[in-house]
C-alpha cells in the first residue's frame, strides 16, 4: 500500500509552531501549550499574564455563561512548577476566577477533573517529556478540551493589556482539591473492561506526575506492581527514566520476570510498553492492539483509527487486513483530536505513545492506555508479545536535513521527481514522507521499506536531492 506524493509528500505536518525548547518563535503557543526553559522563557510573570488573558478571552466568548467562573489547576513535580503554579493560580484569582488547586497530578487527570468538577477552564503546568529545566503551561476549556488555535492566538494578543481589576468580594477564591487523585483513579477503574488479577506489571513513572496514581490504579485493578522511576524530588523528572529512556524498564521487566512493563512520561499523557522479553512495544503497536480489541467489542466507530502521517506502514497494512481504516493527520495530538472529532471517531494517537480514547477522556492518557493494554492481556490470556505481533513494524529511517529553504519544498520539481521515483521503487512495500519543521530551516525525510538497507539507500538519495536543491 504505497502513499502517493499528491497525498502526503509535502504535507506540512508541523503546522504552527512546534512545542520545542524555547518560545522565541512567531507564535507563543505551540502544538501543546507554551513551553520553554523555566524562569527564563516561562517566567512567573508570563504564567500570571497568560492566566489573566485566558480568563478575559474565555469570558468574552461566553465560556462562563455569565456566572462566576471556576478553574482547576495542576502541575507535574518539577521544582519550577511550584512557583509557576502559584503564579497561574494568582493570575486566575485576580481576574475573578475561583480556583481549585489540584496539586501534582497527570495532565489527563486535570483534563478529566475540569469536566468532572463542571469547571469553566483548567491549567496544567508541565513540560511533559522535556528535561527538568523546562516547564510549560497549557489551558483546557470547559469539558477538559484543549483550546482551539484561534483562542490561543487571542490570549496571546491580550497579554499585558490594561484591564479593570475586580475588588472586594469579586476577586477569585482559592481552595485545595484534595481528593483529585481519588476521583481520577476511580474514573480509570470504572472504564476498565477487564480486571488485572494474575498480572505482574512494572511501571516506570519517570519520577513524574503519575508516580502515585499510576501504581495505585494498577494495584486497585488487581495487578501486582513493581515501581521504578517513582520517587520525584522536583529535580529528577524524566532523568534516565520514563518513555524517553526505555532501557531501565526493559531491564526491570526481565529481572522481575514480569508479564509486561509500562513507561510513562513526566506528565503521564503518553505510554510505551515492554513485553516479557524486554522488547519495546511502541505507540503504533499499542494502537493496533487496542483498535482490534475495540472493533471486536463494537466500540470502534467507523472501524477507523486516527493516527499521524508518521505512523508505521506496518500498522496501516495490518489494520487493513482486519477491516480497520487509518485516517492520517498532521503530526501533533491536537491534529489527531481534530480528525477524531470531525469524523466522530474515538480512538487515535501517535507513534510516541500519545493515545486518545474519546469515550473515556479528552486527551492522551498514559495510565489509561497502560491499563487498557494490560486489560487486553488479561482478558485474552495472550502474552503482550503475541498481541503485538498483530503488526510487523517496517524499518523506518528519518533524517533531518538542516539549513535548507523549507518554504521551497512544495514547489521544487526535482524534489518531486525524486519522490515519485522513490515511491515507484518501493511500491506497496514502502512509503516516503517529506515534511517541514515548524520552527527550524529543516526538512524531515522519512522512508519506510521492507528492509533497513533499502530504506537507508532511498533516504540517502532523497536527502542528497533536498540538500542540492534547497540549500540556503
Automatic annotation (TrEMBL):
Reactions accelerated catalytically: alpha-D-glucosamine 1-phosphate = D-glucosamine 6-phosphate
Posttranslational mods: Activated by phosphorylation.
Record GO biological process: carbohydrate metabolic process; peptidoglycan biosynthetic process; UDP-N-acetylglucosamine biosynthetic process
InterPro entries: A-D-PHexomutase_a/b/a-I, A-D-PHexomutase_a/b/a-I/II/III, A-D-PHexomutase_a/b/a-II, A-D-PHexomutase_a/b/a-III, A-D-PHexomutase_C, A-D-PHexomutase_C_sf, Alpha-D-phosphohexomutase_SF, GlmM_bact
Pfam families: PGM_PMM_I, PGM_PMM_II, PGM_PMM_III, PGM_PMM_IV
Active-site annotation: 128 (phosphoserine intermediate)
Residues engaged in binding Mg(2+): 128, 265, 267, 269
GO cellular component terms listed in the entry, alphabetical order: cytosol
Modified residues (Phosphoserine): 128
Stretches assigned to the Alpha-D-phosphohexomutase C-terminal domain: 398-463
Highest taxon above the source species: Bacteria
UniProtKB keywords: Isomerase, Magnesium, Metal-binding, Phosphoprotein
Cofactor note: Binds 1 Mg(2+) ion per subunit.
Stretches of the chain forming a coiled coil according to its record: none
Required cofactor(s): Mg(2+)
UniProt-listed HAMAP family: GlmM_B
Role description: Catalyzes the conversion of glucosamine-6-phosphate to glucosamine-1-phosphate.
Similarity section: Belongs to the phosphohexose mutase family.
UniProt-recorded name of the protein: Phosphoglucosamine mutase
Species assigned in the record: Humibacillus xanthopallidus
Amino acid at each position: 500500500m504505497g502513499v502517493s506524493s499528491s497525498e502526503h509528500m509535502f504535507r506540512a505536518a508541523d503546522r504552527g509552531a512546534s512545542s520545542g525548547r524555547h518560545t522565541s518563535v512567531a507564535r507563543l503557543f505551540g502544538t501543546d501549550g507554551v513551553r520553554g526553559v523555566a524562569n527564563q522563557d516561562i517566567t512567573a510573570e508570563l504564567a500570571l499574564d497568560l492566566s489573566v488573558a485566558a480568563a478575559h478571552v474565555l469570558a468574552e466568548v461566553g465560556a462562563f455563561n455569565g456566572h462566576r467562573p471556576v478553574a482547576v489547576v495542576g502541575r507535574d513535580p518539577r521544582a519550577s512548577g511550584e512557583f509557576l503554579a502559584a503564579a497561574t493560580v494568582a493570575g486566575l484569582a485576580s481576574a475573578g476566577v475561583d480556583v481549585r488547586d489540584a496539586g501534582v497530578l497527570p495532565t489527563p487527570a486535570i483534563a478529566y477533573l475540569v469536566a468532572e468538577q463542571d469547571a469553566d477552564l483548567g491549567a496544567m503546568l508541565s513540560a511533559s517529556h522535556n528535561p527538568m529545566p523546562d516547564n510549560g503551561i497549557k489551558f483546557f476549556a470547559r469539558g477538559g478540551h484543549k483550546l482551539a488555535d484561534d483562542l490561543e492566538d487571542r490570549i496571546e494578543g491580550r497579554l499585558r493589556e490594561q484591564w479593570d481589576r475586580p475588588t472586594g468580594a469579586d476577586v477569585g477564591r482559592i481552595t485545595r482539591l484534595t481528593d483529585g487523585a481519588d476521583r481520577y483513579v476511580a474514573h480509570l477503574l470504572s472504564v476498565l473492561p477487564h480486571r488485572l488479577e494474575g498480572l505482574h506489571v512494572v511501571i516506570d513513572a519517570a519520577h513524574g506526575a503519575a508516580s502515585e496514581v499510576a501504581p495505585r490504579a494498577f494495584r486497585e485493578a488487581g495487578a501486582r506492581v513493581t515501581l521504578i522511576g517513582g520517587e520525584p524530588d522536583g529535580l529528577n523528572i524524566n532523568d534516565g527514566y520514563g518513555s524517553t529512556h526505555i532501557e531501565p524498564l526493559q531491564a526491570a521487566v526481565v529481572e522481575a520476570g514480569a508479564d509486561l512493563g509500562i513507561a510513562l512520561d513526566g506528565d503521564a499523557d503518553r505510554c510505551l510498553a515492554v513485553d516479557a522479553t524486554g522488547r519495546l512495544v511502541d505507540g503504533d503497536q499499542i494502537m493496533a492492539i487496542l483498535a482490534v480489541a475495540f472493533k471486536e467489542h463494537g466500540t470502534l466507530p467507523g472501524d477507523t483509527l486516527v493516527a499521524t502521517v508518521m505512523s508505521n506502514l506496518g500498522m496501516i497494512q495490518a489494520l487493513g487486513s482486519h477491516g480497520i481504516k487509518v485516517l492520517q493527520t498532521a503530526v501533533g495530538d491536537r491534529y489527531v483530536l481534530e480528525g477524531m472529532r470531525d469524523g466522530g471517531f474515538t480512538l487515535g494517537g501517535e507513534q510516541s505513545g500519545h493515545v486518545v480514547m474519546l469515550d473515556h477522556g479528552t486527551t492522551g492518557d498514559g495510565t489509561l492506555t497502560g491499563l487498557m493494554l494490560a486489560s487486553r492481556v488479561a482478558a485474552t490470556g495472550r502474552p503482550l508479545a503475541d498481541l503485538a505481533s498483530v503488526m510487523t513494524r517496517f524499518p523506518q529511517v528519518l533524517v533531518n536535513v538542516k539549513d535548507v529553504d523549507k518554504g521551497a519544498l512544495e514547489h521544487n520539481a526535482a524534489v518531486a521527481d525524486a519522490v515519485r521515483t522513490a515511491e515507484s521503487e518501493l511500491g506497496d512495500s514502502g512509503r516516503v514522507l517529506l515534511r517541514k519543521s515548524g520552527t527550524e530551516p529543516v526538512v524531515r525525510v522519512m522512508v519506510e521499506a521492507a528492509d533497513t538497507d533499502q530504506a537507508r539507500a532511498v533516504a540517502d538519495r532523497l536527502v542528497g536531492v533536498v540538500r542540492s536543491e534547497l540549500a540556503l
